[in-house]
């Protein structure tokens, strides 16, 4: 069942998020104070409006509290970010995500009761560094300082072996969530599943374990 999302702030991160959610079949309201930005994105987003999130009356008129999740994607203006978050909290938004530009901004957002703080610029840097350091990693999502979710091309040493033989949980502290094989996705693969050339493994676990697996 599709959920309702509101994304307030349509910079690079906010616009990309709104488009991804829309593409995934979710109901998305995209909001920005810049009329030119709203006009630009109207061609690719079904519902985009010009509105100022720092004005509680405006958010109330948008019935912002009725959305399942609201994302405050204002990373370049701390004052606007904080005011918008406060308005969302006062209006009873059930789940609030906010973008932070740095750790200090993030601490403020957490103190304001934001359910999840995201750091797009920092996490992109970690992702790029991971790709450079370990060439087999296709994508990496940081879950915490120590753990992450990675899509990776399996090293040649694991090809033809079953997940049982590889024993990744004990050897590397990793669990295989899925295997992408061409157009097919094998979710929660069985222990008997063998890794084939061209497969993409989706694993979750420690960043150190992911790096060690790539060094096999």
UniProtKB/TrEMBL annotation:
| Domain RCK C-terminal residue range list | 135-216
Q: This chain belongs to which protein, by name?
A: Potassium uptake system protein
Q: Per its UniProt record, what SUPFAM superfamilies does this chain match?
A: NAD(P)-binding Rossmann-fold domains, TrkA C-terminal domain-like
Residues covered by the RCK N-terminal domain: 2-118
**Per its UniProt record, what Pfam families does this chain match?**
TrkA_C, TrkA_N
Molecular function terms from GO? monoatomic cation transmembrane transporter activity
Q: Name one GO biological process term.
A: potassium ion transport
